Inverse folding.
């Protein structure tokens, strides 16, 4: 199917980049990978010695260095993760470098809920994605490049992280606002990465593409927790969605955008009010990727380790 022979991955030392690279090496051994990063010394030695990989030292602000790494590639996957400046200005610089090197497709650093349902300012962490989407659409309209956005809801691992405020697996406590029946979209890091690798290898893949591992409510998460671990959980209702909105807004206004205190509440609110749920799914587009459902995911951890499962 694929005519893609060279793929660039920017932010090559990051978690998502490593997972995408591993998937490409396993399933597409004829594809050459250009890894762009600030510190090549941080790249795993096994990757540095792999004949399918060439690493380029390139800071996100160095257009000339970026162009050297992008030259000859058919698609660029951006795996940046960092400050607002990096996620907006850094991606714009990378997109411009892609255009200068005639790279036809750009996969944005999204892996997110469907941020198209948000306005600027609704969820500060998603604002960069909206800015990059607008920039790509401007360049697409001029016929310069085609944007790709892989959406997967939340990462399943993050759904169990303490900061999100939904599940405390060690203590067996689940908390929710609303009815507790509102659904969360979720996909594991590895499955989102494997799906992205297939998207990158498919020259026809453009626009918004959705992949989903599972869709579960807080109550359903608690039920699966009991089924898998044999521990009866405590379930706490903290208020209505309106209460959640008021609380998260007050915390944000008090502590400011640099604080993490509000982040979990923002994710809870915007994922459960229906504004950012994934639409039509594209799982069947790449049947080689079989995303894990939540029960299968939980069976890979103990109740004491699942909350730390995003770390590897």
């Amino acid at each position: 199917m694929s005519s893609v022979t060279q793929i660039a991955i920017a932010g090559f030392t990051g978690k998502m980049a490593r997972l995408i690279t591993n998937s490409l090496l396993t399933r597409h051994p004829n594809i050459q990978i250009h890894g762009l990063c600030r510190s090549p010394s941080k790249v795993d030695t096994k990757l540095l010695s792999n004949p399918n990989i060439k690493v380029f030292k390139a800071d996100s602000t160095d257009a000339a260095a970026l162009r050297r790494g992008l030259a000859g590639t058919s698609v660029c996957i951006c795996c940046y993760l960092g400050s607002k400046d990096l996620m907006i200005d850094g991606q714009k610089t990378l997109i411009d470098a892609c255009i200068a090197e005639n790279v036809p497709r750009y996969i944005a650093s999204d892996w997110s809920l469907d941020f198209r349902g948000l306005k600027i300012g609704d969820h500060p962490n998603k604002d960069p994605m909206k800015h990059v989407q607008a920039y790509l659409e401007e360049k697409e309209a001029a016929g310069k490049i085609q944007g790709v956005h892989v959406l997967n809801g939340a990462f399943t691992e993050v759904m169990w992280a303490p900061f999100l405020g939904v599940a405390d697996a060690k203590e067996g406590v689940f908390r929710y606002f609303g009815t507790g029946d509102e659904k969360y979209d979720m996909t594991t890091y590895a499955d989102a990465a494997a799906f992205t690798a297939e998207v990158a290898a498919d020259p026809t893949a453009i626009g918004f593409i959705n992949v989903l591992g599972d869709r579960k409510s807080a109550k359903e998460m608690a039920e699966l927790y009991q089924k898998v671990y044999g521990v009866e959980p405590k379930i706490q209702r903290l208020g209505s969605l309106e209460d959640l909105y008021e609380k998260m807004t007050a915390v944000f206004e008090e502590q400011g955008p640099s604080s993490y205190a509000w982040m979990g509440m923002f994710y809870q609110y915007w994922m459960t009010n229906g504004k950012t749920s994934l639409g039509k799914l594209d799982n069947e587009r790449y049947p080689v990727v079989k995303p894990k459902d939540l029960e299968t995911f939980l069976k890979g951890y103990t109740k004491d380790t699942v909350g730390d499962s995003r770390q590897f």
